[in-house]
């Protein structure tokens, strides 16, 4: 059992290092593909967080915490109905109650 856990941990660590190396190589490849150094080169996503404010830039588009609150209010006004979400909630509630009854039946 110890050898299995050790092998699993080493395999997971190796995969993690491989992913990080791949990301670094991809980043270097993007810079090489441009052919020149551009100080205005922007990251895909940058996040700035102050005490009260949250600012994010995604693909050059600024998003602040106020924008997120406005979108949240807009979604609440729409009152959108998600069929799969409601079915998932009902299914999880039914499975939870069935498992509780089964455990109570076994425990008695």
Number of strands: 3
- Low-confidence runs of at least 5 consecutive residues: none
How many structural domains does the protein architecture include?
A: 2
- Structural class call reads alpha+beta
Main beta sheet, described? Answer: 3 strands, antiparallel
Strand content: 5-15%
* Dominant shape: flat
Calculate the mean pLDDT score and round it: 80
Helix content: 55-70%
Radius of gyration: 24 Å
N- and C-termini, Cα separation: 35 Å
What letter string, H or E per element, gives the SSE order?
A: HEEEHH
In DSSP terms (H or I, runs of 4 or more residues), the helix count works out at 3
For the biggest β-sheet, the strand order reads 1-2-3
């Amino acid at each position: 059992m110890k050898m299995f856990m050790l092998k699993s941990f080493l395999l997971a660590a190796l995969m993690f290092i491989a992913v990080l190396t791949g990301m670094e190589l991809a980043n270097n490849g993007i810079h090489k593909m441009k052919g020149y150094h551009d100080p205005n080169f922007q990251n895909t996503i940058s996040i700035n967080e102050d005490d009260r404010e949250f600012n994010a830039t995604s693909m050059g588009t600024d998003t602040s915490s106020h924008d997120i609150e406005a979108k949240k209010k807009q979604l609440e006004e729409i009152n959108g109905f998600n069929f799969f979400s409601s079915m998932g909630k009902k299914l999880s509630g039914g499975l939870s109650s069935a498992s509780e009854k089964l455990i109570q039946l076994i425990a008695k």
